[in-house]
UniProtKB/TrEMBL annotation:
It comes from the Bacteria. This is Stage V sporulation protein AE. InterPro entries: Spore_V_AE, SpoVA. NCBIfam families: spore_V_AE. PANTHER family: STAGE V SPORULATION PROTEIN AC-RELATED, STAGE V SPORULATION PROTEIN AEB. The keyword Transmembrane applies. Keywords: Membrane, Transmembrane, Transmembrane helix. The keyword tRNA-binding does not apply.
Length: 117
């Protein structure tokens, strides 16, 4: 039960940071999303994001900041094995299943539901 509470607090905290970026700093949603992705990559590079995921579970692995951490992790892993070209291919290899799932489920949803616009 305690794990659920921490997941809610950490995930909610990440969302609050995003909302503050939009409300206080007047960033657009696209700028906010990019900022959170870069923040996740920086925290991952400093070795701070993986402990956060271990502590908060889905509260840290579901938000967009986790995507930045995954991109960096894939780039580092592949660059160690294949050099500089691995840094480019690694970001696609580690994140491709999530992106593919989003495209497939988005398409399926568009077949089931009608848009209002």
């Amino acid at each position: 039960m305690e794990k659920f509470i921490w997941a809610f607090i950490v995930g909610g905290g990440i969302c609050v940071i995003g909302q503050i970026l939009m409300d206080v700093f007047r960033l657009t949603p696209a700028h906010t999303m990019c900022t959170l992705v870069v923040a996740g990559a920086v925290l991952g590079g400093l070795g701070l994001y993986d402990p956060l995921v271990k502590f908060a579970g889905a509260g840290a692995s579901v938000p967009i900041s986790s995507f930045g951490n995954s991109l960096l992790k894939g780039a580092i892993l592949e660059s160690q094995q294949n050099g500089i070209i691995g840094a480019l291919t690694g970001i696609f290899e580690i994140t491709s299943s999530g992106i593919s799932a989003a495209i497939v489920f988005g398409f399926l949803a568009s077949l089931i539901f009608k848009s209002k616009g």
